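Lab channel / #folding
Pinned by the channel admin:
"Please post every new chain as: sequence first, then the structure tokens as a reply. Keep commentary short and put observations after the output so the thread stays searchable."

First post following the new format, from NK:
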Amino acid sequence: MVSSSVGRLTPGARQWLGWIALAGAGWVALARIAACSVQESQLLTAKSSSGVAGGAGAGVQVGGDTGGCPVRLVGWAAVNADGVPTTTGGGNATPQRVTSLEELRALAGDATPRVIELSGTITTGSDNVGIASNKMLVGVDRNATIEGGITMNGASNVIVRNLNIHGAGDGNTPVDAIGVRDSHHIWFDHLSVWDGPDGNLDITSGSTHVTVSWTRFWYSDPEHSHRQSCLVGASSSEVDVDTGKNNVTFHHNWFAELVDQRMPRLLFGQGHVFNSYYNSVGNSACISVGSFASGLIENNHFEDVDDPHLFADENPSQITAIGNHYSNVTGRLDRGQNGQGGQGGAAVEITPFTVPPYSYTLDDAEDVADIVTRCAGPQ
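Reply from TO:
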């Protein structure tokens, strides 16, 4: 494995990579991005034997038996922003175990920082369970399950881990197994998420600073009409809401049976997808990047899938793809700059996202399938 961090500098070099101007009819959005210079031809890496590395927030142990698998916060959810230094969930609050829907709704939805332990199966019915700020929701073992859905709406500093989250199935409600709206500093870890009616995990409405790690996404029904797993940004028209938001990290996830597309789909933000395993045979697309987004796609393992990474639309966007392993894949391997400009012909160049503002460890892409299939999901 190799270690990668914001310390990847040529000697003495640190600079601001300008301003991105997103030009359209009647709007100009500016996003200033701090970054460090890297060698022109490659990312600098150094050998590491630590197994797991992290930046701010690394080493956060959040309950449950890890089964020897890593449990450490890495990615955008660890970055100090919007008044939140890093994602800690309920912090040091005394854990409270719930076994009923009524208990879960009451504790998860109030204003008190909490560590909420789930045991057994809780069914939410047609209404999802709202998770408020400063909460950690954790399964006590690998059998802990939520049937239905959960949502964060206007929340911050939330951790959800070690759970099975079984969506309501095609055409039912709640529409998403997990919905994140207008929220920031959210960490999803060691989950199994499947059969969301509209999405397994949708991150929309100006949400940002989200990490999704060690999670298995899948579907059980081949007749499900919307097997589109993970959405980051609702649409290309959400300029005012999503510009400067949608910053997400997906790492060590497993996109498995019957996922058709959106693994994830990223609009507007800076997205980092690394060390994830893709073997959803018969899919139509894996990672898609569009509408003023910039994606860094590195050291993933794509096997027996179509379109490993592609541009989602004709709007300007950027893909950097490094160190991935492709086995029996077909279709597109898009990278570089896409699109020429917005309305009125104004030129728009999207700055490549190559140096995330956090430390992380890269496993070799050839090892990803074994690592992820062993450790993704509840432990």
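NK: Residues 5-64 have pLDDT under 50 and may be disordered.
TO: also worth noting, Residues 50-375 form a domain with the Pectate Lyase C-like fold (CATH 2.160.20.10).
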